[in-house]
Amino acid sequence: MQQRADELARWTDIIANPDGTARIVREILSELCDRLLNGSIHDIAELERERLVHRGDLEQVRLERDTAAAQRDAVLAATSWRIMEPLRVAANVTSRLTVKVRALPKRLSMALRSVAARLRRPKVRPDA
Prior knowledge:
It contains 4 helices and no strands. By secondary structure, it is mainly α. The chain folds into 2 domains: about 1-85; about 85-120. Helix 1 packs across helix 2 (about 20-75). The N and C termini lie far apart (about 125 Å).
């Protein structure tokens, strides 16, 4: 209780002083700056920890990428891959031809309908 009374008396003296308002503002700003600075230092330390974690993750991803690229290069350089290239080309050509052949009946049907429609139209002959 005495501590509270002492604090109240201290603040009463500060407020009564002609420069009391300026002193209060200085103390508040000083405390606010200290809090912000301490918070910033804490935030910077936390961000640095996160950066280190992400850097480790990045290194792991790079290692996986390099391993996958090496495996891909090994497959592409393999004799069996090179020997099978003609078969892959043939399969690709066959696939494209299959799509075109499947579309052929529909295209023929449309062409026949167009020809039939032209044949049904009467020819207009100019009067001679």
